Every structure is written in C-alpha cells, then in structure tokens.
Fold this sequence. Notes:
The structure holds three protein chains of three kinds.
Chain A: H1 11-52
Chain B: H1 2-33, H2 39-43, E1 53-59, E2 65-66, E3 72-78, E4 83-89, E5 101-108, E6 114-122, H3 130-144
Parallel strand pairs in B: 4-6
Antiparallel strand pairs in B: 1-3, 1-5, 2-3, 3-4, 5-6
Chain C: H1 2-9, H2 11-43, H3 57-84, H4 87-118, H5 127-148, H6 152-166, H7 169-179, H8 199-231, H9 235-243
Helix pairs in contact in C: 2-8, 3-4, 3-6, 3-8, 4-5, 4-8, 5-6, 5-7
Amino acid sequence: MPEFLEFGKHTTYVVSSFSLTMMVLVINVVTARLRLAARIKRTRQRLALEENS
Amino acid sequence: MKARHQRLIAIGLVLVGLGLGTTFLLRAMNENILFYYSPSQVAAGEPPEGRRFRVGGLVVNGSIDRAPGDLEVRFVLTDNAKTVPVVYSGILPDLFREGQGIIAHGELTKDGSFRADEVLAKHDENYMPPEVEDSLKQVHGGAET
Amino acid sequence: MWTWFHKLGSPPHFYRIATRLTPWFGWAALLLIVAGVYGGLYVAPTDYQQLDGFRIIYVHVPSASLSLFIYVNMALAAAAGLIWRIKLAHAIAAACAPIGASFTFLALATGSIWAKPMWGTWWVWDARLTSELVLLFLYFGFMALRAAIDDENRADRASALLAIIGVINVPIIKYSVDWWNTLHQPATISKLGKPSMDSDMLIWLLIMLAGFMCYFVAVVLTRAKAEVLQRARDQKWVRQALEGK
C-alpha cells in the first residue's frame, strides 16, 4: 500500500469505502451517458425511417 | 393474455415489495422495544428468564479485567444506578473502552453475571480532533473542581 | 406563472435547458468531490475516538442524505405527473430512481464497512438500518414496476402511486434515531442547533455534500433527456434538438 493510502489501523475500511463510492459514481455517469447516446441514435433512425415513408 | 400476465406480475411485485417492507419495519420496531435492557432492569428481574437478551450500559472505569494470554474479558456495565458484571470472549470493537456505551448480547448465568457472545459499541454523534477533546476536558475539569 | 409552468413542462424547452446546464453541474461536481475527498482524507484532523476511521463519514453521510433527497424529489415529480398529467414529470421521476438506488446502496455499504470496526458488527436490525434497507427495496420496486408494464402511461401512473406511498418511509428513516432506541447514533448535522462536529471537519463534509448534489443534478438531467426522447411523439422539435444544435 503506498504511503498516501495509509490510514492507521483503519486503512482497509477507509480505502475500501472511498473506492467503492467513487466506483459507483463513475458507473452512474457512464451508464447515464451511454443510455442517452443509444436513445439519440435510435431516435435518429426512427426519424430517418419516418422521412422515407 | 400477455397484458394480463404482466399486470399480474406487476401487482405481485408491488405486493411482495410492500409486504417485505412492512415485515422488516415491524421486525425492527419489535426488536427495538426490547433492543436492550438497562442494568437496573436486569437487577429488577425484568428480562425474561432463560432467554437471551441484550443489556446496554457504560463500561465502569477500571473494571476491565483481561486474563493474560486469553481472549476472555471481564468488565462491569452500569447505568449509574445498578451494575451488571459481563464475561465475554471474542474480538472487541475498536471503540470498546472505559466509559464507553456498550450493548452486549447473551444470557444471565446462575452466579448473576452476564455471559455475552456479542459485544457492540454505541458511539455518539460528536466528532472532534484530540486537541479539542483535551481542552474540553480541561475546561470541564476546572469547572467541576 | 402559468406560462412559466407550461414552459417548464414542455419537453423541447426542458431538453434545451438540460443540455445547457448539464456540463456546469458536472464540472462543479467533479471539482467539489475531488476537493472533498482530498480534504476529508488529508486535511481534516483525525477524530479523538475513531482516529482515521471517522473519515468514512465523508462518503457515508452524503450518500445517505442524497438517498433521501432523491426519493423526495422522485415522489414530488411523480405526484406532479399524476396530478397535472405532465409527462416530463414522470420522465424525471423515472430518471431519479436508479441514481437514488445507487446512493442508498452506497449508504448501506459504506455504513456497513464503518460499523464493522467501530460497533463490532457489519449489520444490526435497528430501526435506522432497517428503514434504509426498505428504501432500497422501494427504489427497486419502483424500477421493477416500470419495467413490468409495457404501456408507458400506465407504467407512469402505477409507479407514481408506489413512489408516493413510499414517502412515509422518509420521515421514518430520518427520525428513527430519535424515536427508537437504535445502535446508530443521532444526527450530527441537523437544521436546528449547532452541529456536533468540529468546523475543520465539517467544512469538508459540506463540500462533499454540495458535490454530491451537483453530481445528482448532472446525472438526472442526462437520464431525463433520454426518457424525454423516448416519450417524444412530435418529431419537429426532436429533429431540431438532435440536428440543429
């Protein structure tokens, strides 16, 4: 464990709770953005279809 | 057919969710009425006999007795009125210390002491650096003496 | 007043505003959270009892606050959708649920990690912990209900009802530590009275809380945009929004 991640006898607990939190925050952002991108793509396809018909 | 099927699933899910929720809530409330007994209540014989229960109180200063080379710890819990001696062998929480609020789960033995198989620490909502705590102590000590 | 209300409820207007606001909240969140993590881990002094272990508060308390804050928002949006039949409000409620669920999960998980060394157990069935677990099930129930019903309008209405009923759990969670004898300690920060925390420690907690709030706004706007697009019928504004940027 690098020195900046040493928190006395509670190192494991502090590091695991902080990293778990950051992981969940990142996952939330990524899924939200992927969802929006997928939705935009599908809407574009729908619009193109409607235009042709 | 399909729509009705889905409606049934939806209603079922809601019912299961609500049921689960109320069960957990009732369970929590139920256990909380008896979450722990104070040493005074134990002295008065309030906890049901022959059943396991929780006792909560403060660890009496200087009462912690640890046999060398053994996990067994003896200490006394108080509510500032009555006391209960507790015997426990196992790992103690970090916050376990003299004067700390403790909740022990176990049963009374024949000699009147409480044999615990679980000891939890209850901490308060105050957070401060050690220096602040020291100066607080000094102020309080000075005012009282 | 009513024009403002109508404008707010109009999907094109919302989509435009959301697109403009999201980066601001996103960057503010990143800045505040980075500052909060750094301050909480390295600048704030150690606690007199818990030493470095108390630092978990910087992720636990904001997660727990947000889990409640988001639920109230979700229920309000759902109620507005139900009462005034605003589709946008339902879209926002739907966008709230997964974010709220993830913060509830974080509150439970980080609380458990914190409880192990300090209390001596990963979990107890006390009123605070149990009611927070019920909150997680409420979020899951809301999402499951939406997924189970194909028809959008009916899914909106059914899930809104569930969200509104579930609101009773919010005060139960908040006041559980005062009403019942719990292992969990009472609140450190409350609206009335001064917080039971040293100001050198408190400042980073408030920064973290602000960061989490901005984060929530940024993510919920992104999710709501996807929901709005999914519900869009009138293709004129959609075309404008997607192409005429």
